[in-house]
Amino acid sequence: MHVLVATPSGGLGQGGIDRLMGALKLQLERQDSADIDVRFIATRGPGHVGLSVFYTLGFCLRMFAARIAGRADVIHINVASMGSTYRKLVIARCARLLGIPYVLHLHGAEYRSFWNGDGGFLDRRIQSMFEHASRVVVLGRVWRDFIAGRAPGAAGNIVIVPNATETPLLAHIGGGDSIHILFLGRIGERKGVPQLCDALANMKSVGHWRATIAGDGEVEETRARLTELGLTDRVQLPGWVGPDEVAALIASADILALPSFAENLPVSVIEGMASGLAVVTTPVGAVEDIVTNEQNGLLVPPGDVAALTKALTRLVEDPALRTRLGDAARAVHRERLEIAPFAMALQRVWRDASIGNRLEARS
Fold first, then answer.
1. How far apart are CA 323 and CA 138, in angstroms?
2. From start to end of 67-157, where are the E strands?
3. Which of 63, 50, 55, 58 is nearest to 94 (CA)?
4. Beta sheet of 209-214, edge-to-edge order
5. Mind listing the pLDDT tens digit for each residue in 265-312?
6. Which of 140, 146, 223, 321 gets the highest tally of CB atoms within 10 A of its CB?
């Protein structure tokens, strides 16, 4: 079976989709399955967004060539909001014209506000894209219900496959005498970084903690805010860090904080759970599918600085609570969020899509 995967930078970029697809690519290489050939192809590219049209057209040309050569059984289309959807509308349409079944894999954190169901031209085109998909992969129950409501014709083809990560290679050592609070993600309003800064400022009288806010985005604005709050001696702001640095930060952390206003299913939370960190996050997107409050993490309302302050302070001051929540989070990861079962689940989706297309062609 030949599968072409449409992903922003071919699995080599910084974003969550590319990180996930990069991990999937490595897992498939480890499996070394002789009966499946998967190619990851960029549809946006690493440069200016204006150049993405050339990557999208290039993907369509490669899809056409693969179809002629008999090496295109399924197209796997990763899709998020805005430009990602516009590019994937073109790719999905080309796949239909070529008679190749496609799978849509929805990642966008703000897709409910982007696809507002207003009945306009774009709304109808997105609905058609989802309803013509052989399978629709979503990351949790809330997204299954959303797609079924917006595109009723796709309801029977929706499959829940939560994001996944590899088991960490680095042993978890924690922060030692200074409890290490870690944020990983794009720094800005959507991820709740201003509220995190305010919560950390409220904790200045609490001893024995330090924090790292790592990621791209509004780095300099946040640096200025930390200076204003008098937190530069306790909070590090390294900017974007690569995979090795991410692994080292997670291994040295005790608490993973992600107080977002909107998510789909954040990879950073899953990475924290894999290492047994105590997670503090918000019940947005599909987060509640994997984090249960007081059982394997702490959930706080989005934008609630007081609740975030209380949750972080509890974890800093209570090592038994950190250990209990971290151990439970690690157990959930081992049971449900490992990359190997994720890869197997997607292979089943691809086979179902391919078989279903052949049966339709014969009928």
1. 31
2. 74-79, 102-106, 135-138
3. 63
4. 235-239, 209-214, 179-184, 255-258, 278-281, 298-299
5. 999 999 999 999 999 999 999 999 999 999 999 999 999 999 999 999
6. 140
pLDDT tens for 130-142 read 999 999 999 999 9
Distance CA 222, CA 91 (A): 38
- The domains spanning 2-164+339-362 and 179-336 adopt the same CATH topology: yes
Q: What is the largest CA-CA distance in the chain?
A: 71
Cα–Cα distance measured from residue 316 to residue 293, given in angstroms and rounded to the nearest whole number: 17
CA dihedral for 112, 113, 119, 125, sign (positive or negative): negative
Q: Which of 97, 20, 7 is nearest to 55 (CA)?
A: 7
One-letter amino acid of 286? A
Please give the Cα distance from 166 to 163 (Å, whole number): 11
Instruction: Give the strand pairing for 74-79 and 298-299.
Output: unpaired
| DSSP for residue 296 | T
CA pair distance 280, 187, nearest whole angstrom: 17
pTM exceeds 0.70 for this model: yes
- The upper half-sphere exposure of residue 89, i.e. CA atoms within 13 Å in the direction of its Cβ, equals 14
Q: 179-336: which CATH number, 3.30.450.70, 3.40.50.720, 3.40.50.2000, 3.30.200.20?
A: 3.40.50.2000
- Beta-carbon contacts of residue 217 (< 8 Å; ≥ 6 apart): 186, 187, 188, 191, 193
Q: What percent of the chain has pLDDT over 90?
A: 90
- CATH no. of 2-164+339-362: 3.40.50.2000
CA atoms within 13 A on the CB side of 167: 9
Burial class from Cβ neighbours inside 10 Å (0-12, 13-18, 19+) for residue 24 reads buried
CA distances from 340 to 25, 30, 166, 266 (A): 11, 10, 8, 18
Between helix 319-336 and helix 267-274 the angle, nearest 10°, is: 110
pLDDT digits (tens, 9 = 90+) for 56-65: 999 999 999 9
Q: Where are the domains of the chain?
A: 2-164+339-362, 179-336
